Structures are given as C-alpha cells and as structure tokens.
C-alpha cells in the first residue's frame, strides 16, 4: 500500500496544476491532512475533495474539511506573509489554521474562531497532534471576530458568509486584507478585499461553494424539501413564499427552446451568476433520486440540480437537450410567461458576451450607497458589481 506521504505528494502535484504559489504548495506538503481527519481512510483524505465532518440532527452537513484546491486558491488570495497576524472564521478540523500557521511562521500568530464547541475541541486536539499548538482556537460567534488579539493583517472566512461583519473590517489593521466566500444573492464567490478610499474593493474573485455561516449572522436563504421520496429540494436565496410546486411539476410542461448552446462551466460560473444578481425569483432545485427533474445541465456526483425561477404555484427550470441547447421548461398556471422570461435572461446573457467570474469586480460600501449599476444590499454593506472590459 502506498504510504500517506506519497499520496500527499500526488495531491499537492494535482493542486499545483491550478497555479498556486510555492509558499502554499510547501505548506500543503508540510501539514499532514490525515491528522485532522483521523476517522477517514487515508486514500480518501488525500483526494482533492471536500469531506463532511459533521451533520445536524436531520442529517444535513454543517461542517467539512474543504477541498484542498479551493483552500489553496483562497490562501493565495489572502497573500499571507511571514510574521503576520491572521484571524480565521470557521475552525472546522483545524487543518486550514495549521496551513496558515505554517505560512506566518514562528513570528506570526493565527487565531481561529468557531461557534461549535465540539468542533473547537477537536480542532485544538488535531492542531496539538500535528505540531501546531501555538494556534489559538476560540469558541464564539465568528461574526464578532476576536478583538483581544486585534489588529490583524489578514482575515479569512472558511464558511459561506451572507455579509461582511463590521467586526472583521474594524479588526483589520492598515493595509489589511480580507478573504471570504461572499453570498451574491444565492451564489458564492471567494472575494479578496482591501481598503480603497472610503470603501472596500476586490483584488480577486474566484468561484466557490461553502457551507453557510450559522448563528445570528446567517443569511435569509432557505431550503425546503418538496418531496421526501426523491429528496426534491428547493433553495431560495432570499426566502419567501412558494405554492404547490409538486402539483405543478406533476402537470403538463411548457417548453421554450432557445438558440443558445452552452457547456457546464459557463452555466455554473456564468449564467447562474447572471440570474443570481439580476433575477430576484431565481432558485435551484435538486434531487438525490430520479423522479421530478429531467435532463438538468448540472448533474453532479450523487444528485441532480437545475436552476430556474419560481413564482407562486409556477416555476421554470433550465434544462439542456442535444448539443447542449438550453431549454426553458416551465410548469404551473404561469408557465408560458415564466418560460419566456427565463429564455429572455438566457438571450441577454449570451448577447452580453456570456460574462463569468473572470473580470468581476466587487466594491463593498459601508454607509454610503452607490447609485446605478448592479447593487446588492446587505445588513451592513452594499455591494456594487461590475465587469472589467479591458
């Protein structure tokens, strides 16, 4: 059997294909991930996959060890340097905190905060066993940061956040940078932000997907199981009321074929983002057993997912036919109208040049509200979105 260090080398080589820095690659080689996942088989630990580590009473995942490639990309976004002080929001297994500790070196300091006392205890134990006892792991609401060790040079959230907590921005010192998987009306992007005059401006934006923050700072997104037999579930980025969608799906469908062809990457990165920031009725539906969803373009491991729009007792989902032609398939009393509206979004996205995350710029304003353009209002900040065309 291959030794774990050989498996780790294979993983690091795979992650390096994403173009990560030498410093982050060295940290991945130095920190043994299996120490932080002692109950997981070693061959699974050193795959480039996220691993669920805790579920709630209903079996839903609430904590995980993130995909190593995603962790590496975010660490590069963070731009950690030796001797810096770093605040981490979301301790998880402690693995990312160990990577951070390796990057800041013996002159630096890492503080990690998690709301779950059980996870905090495990993270402390894992860090001790791995040789990183200097990391400070605190049980508390991550939205409050940890003022006792402020100011920080870097702040990183390893959990999906709906808004930028004021404490994080306040606890960043001059020239500081924050990286967070930020919610953009139901889709997440890992955003690296620095101060730019009176607001915060993105330095880089990367597609991502993280479990959402729990506690008082959780966002309004809701998920509802529509059919337990197939685990048909709808996610609504802003919550809200819906009608009897199972009855709608059980009825006739209205199909509107577009003239747009698209591959999976453009759908996941581009069209989903387009709908999220422009269409307040947008939603996702998924199921783990075949039943209600047809040829969804987002067929992932273990379940099928489609994106669409929902209104009352009607919904329209995006599906694909031969040669990846996009189809708006609608159900319910307003099916024809919703199909036309979703098809219009697809056409507009296509005519706009199919913008994706590449080139996206996000400006986060505290207090002052920008005028015009694409704007997403949060509790504490207002996000202004634009695309660099140069």
From TrEMBL:
GO terms for molecular function: protein-L-isoaspartate (D-aspartate) O-methyltransferase activity. One of its GO terms (cellular component) is cytoplasm. Keywords: Cytoplasm, Methyltransferase, S-adenosyl-L-methionine, Transferase. Its main location: cytoplasm. Gene3D superfamilies: Vaccinia Virus protein VP39. GO terms for biological process: methylation. Its EC number is 2.1.1.77. It is found in: Cytoplasm. Transmembrane segments: none annotated. SUPFAM superfamilies: S-adenosyl-L-methionine-dependent methyltransferases. InterPro entries: Methyltran_FxLD (IPR027573), PCMT (IPR000682), SAM-dependent_MTases_sf (IPR029063). PANTHER family: PROTEIN-L-ISOASPARTATE O-METHYLTRANSFERASE, PROTEIN-L-ISOASPARTATE(D-ASPARTATE) O-METHYLTRANSFERASE. Belongs to the methyltransferase superfamily. L-isoaspartyl/D-aspartyl protein methyltransferase family. This is Protein-L-isoaspartate O-methyltransferase.
